[in-house]
Amino acid sequence: QIQGMPYGNCLLVSDGPIHNSTGIPFFYVTPKDKTVADLLKNPVASLTLPEVDGNFCRKNVVDPEDLRCTRLTLTGQMVTVAPEEVEFAKQAMFSRHPVIRKWPRNYEWFFLKMNIEHIWLQNWYGEVSTITVEE
Q1: With the CA atoms of 42, 112, 117 and 51 taken in that order, what torsion angle do they form, in degrees rounded to the nearest 10?
Q2: Which residue ranges does the record assign to the CREG-like beta-barrel domain (predicted)?
Q3: Of the candidates 78, 66, 83, which has an alpha carbon nearest to the alpha carbon of residue 122?
Q4: pLDDT in tens, 15-71
Q5: Which residues span the domain enclosing 49?
Q6: Does residue 116 belong to any structural domain of this protein?
Q7: N or C: which end of the chain has fewer CB within 10 A?
Q8: What is the CATH number of the domain that holds 82?
């Protein structure tokens, strides 16, 4: 009913093992998920991350989804992780989200990553700054 329309979903994400963050978002997914099936047809996606651990929200005990808290939005192409990078993706996801080790094996899990093309930092009620991918 919403074919061709964008929609959001919550997926576990990791940018590397705890002491080896890369800034590249990795995902452990199944093609049985409609979101993933859509991404395999049209890989353009966006990812918004709230300021969970930032100074303002933590100091003032403010809900991370409060408009005063900073949000980072990444947009780009979702691609299947290349074989030479699978071990790193596995360490990244499994070290930060150990529960996925217990997920059913028959779901054809595989790794995706986002090739980031644009970065927006939104701070305080809509003020947006563009950040280069190199930064």
Answers
A1: 120
A2: 2-135
A3: 66
A4: 999 899 999 999 999 999 988 988 999 999 999 887 765 666 667 777 766 776 778
A5: 13-131
A6: yes
A7: N
A8: 2.30.110.10
Q: How far apart are the first and last CA of the chain?
A: 40
**Alpha-carbon span 78 to 44, nearest angstrom:** 6
For residue 4, being part of any structural domain is answered with no
pLDDT, tens only, 101-122? 999 989 999 999 999 999 998 8
List b or e across 85-94, with b for residues whose CB sees 16 or more CB atoms inside 10 angstroms.
eeebbeebbe
Domain count for the chain: 1
Distance separating alpha carbons of residues 98 and 95, to the nearest angstrom: 6
Q: Identify which of 37, 19, 2, 8 has the alpha carbon closest to the alpha carbon of residue 112.
A: 37
The type of residue at 66 is D
> Tokens 């028959």 belong to which residue?
106
Q: Does 127 score more than 90 pLDDT?
A: no
Length of the chain, please? Answer: 135
In sequence order, what are the residues at sequence separation of 6 or more whose Cβ sits closer than 8 angstroms to the Cβ of residue 109?
28, 29, 30, 100, 103
Distance CA 74, CA 80 (A): 17
